[in-house]
Amino acid sequence: MASEKKREDDPTASVSAVNNPTVALLCYCASSILMTVTNKYVLSGMNFNLNFLLLCVQSAVALLAIQTCKTIGIFQYRDFKLDEAKKWFPISLLLIALIYTGSKALQYLSVPVYTIFKNMAIIVTAYAEMLWFGGSNVSRMTLFSFGLMVLSSIIAAWADIQHALTASSSTTEAHSSISTLNAGYTWMAINCFCAAAFTLSLRKKIKVLGFKDLDTMFYNNLLPIPVLLAASLFLEDWSSANLEKNFPPEQRLTIISVMVFSGMSAVFISYTQGWCLRVGTSTTFSMVGALNKLPLSIVGLVFFDAPVTFGSVSAIICGFVSGIVYTLAKLQQSAKAQLLPTVAPKA
Fold first, then answer.
1. More confident residue, 290 or 32
2. 32-48: burial string, b at 16+ Cβ within 10 Å, e else
3. Which of 9, 209, 223, 243 has its CB surrounded by the most CB atoms within 10 Å?
């Protein structure tokens, strides 16, 4: 009883949870799954082409939510400062590139294939971190996990193409399906490089400016809004006919509600994103995409009618195993680092 009382009164318990990388990664995992599912629902519409508008709504709703929480005293973060905004703006541009290319890839690819190909960002991030931040060398086990990631991506692409060819009733339909997949793979490749650039740049800028998690969330939602709104107004079709296609009367309320809900999801993903980078490394943060692959892929198979084939299931399993191998490799690497002496022995 005394020990339980002591734990309840111990303020370090909550502090240790806040600084625990495992807790941060699990929270980010859950929020990223929620975000992907809501985005896929909106983007899976046959005629939806207002990606910038969707992203703008998400940022606006998220900003409104966190500002409301600050106003009523739930939490606090630093006030807007122009000089800080100028320094943070390049990060916002990278974030816009990341979320836009991700939305385009998700629009053309199924949820399982999308999550499998996100693994490629881990490889890019790992080598970039090693070159730019003096990260540790890639071990044999890590290299093996990278090989599994590449293999799972190849299997997923092969299964996707085979299904597109066999499910098509004509050559024209098959050609159209392959073109759609190629567009998705192209956007996915661009997204992987954007993800690596954003993750590494965000980590560096957080340390330079001394941002806390809530500060990062505030600027990550505020600064993209004018850029996304301008991009939507000038680059997307706002004609009444196109709006009718994007928001058909029978689904209009549902689509708008999901867009707003996805904005609330962005609150959690923005916060946990900064949280993960503060308490862990950028490569480990990127690894969340591999560890949440299995539940996210199952959601995609069940709710979005993704093709269930031997190839697609094999790719999911291979991708998930690669995540486990990578995690074990990082744990092994961390254990070795702890065994090394941190100071030179005295003569």
1. 32
2. bbbbbbbbbbbbeeeeb
3. 223
